[in-house]
Amino acid sequence: MELEYASEKVKSQCTSVKAANKLFGGDAALTKSLLARINALSSADTIKDIIVQKSFRFHDLENKKGRNLEGFFAIDVKTIKEPWRIVLQPLNEKKMPYDPCNIDEIASYVKIVEIMEVSKHYE
Question: How far apart are CA 74 and CA 85, in angstroms?
């Protein structure tokens, strides 16, 4: 799958051990897990390959605190016990968000995702 990044900062956090370590306050286990998740995303043929892996806990996001998160999804960086999530958005072949984004219908076709952020999304 092709990965796009919302910013250079997000790209650095997802591809650089040094930047990921800084993000996680030196937690090497989280850094290793993030880089493994990014590798899994880039190795997948479609987003469906990620959805079917229960340990990733792929889930849609709800609108919170005035943020419209319709069409955005998240996977755990490590486990559900950790607060860190990789927030992503499926993109079509023109690198535009799906509208509407019914993941059940498009999962087999999504070959591009944009990584929006790596964050403690629920805090």
Answer: 6
Q: Which fold has domain 2-119?
A: YaeB-like fold (3.30.2310)
pTM over 0.90: yes
Q: Which two tokens stand for residue 52?
A: 């079917």
Longest distance between any two alpha carbons in the chain, whole Å: 39
Say yes or no to pLDDT of 25 above 90. yes
Q: What DSSP line would sit under 17-72, residue for residue?
A: HHHHHHHTTT-HHHHHHHHHHHHHHHH-SSTHHHHT-GGG--EE---BTTB--TT-
Q: Which residue has the higher pLDDT, 33 or 123?
A: 33
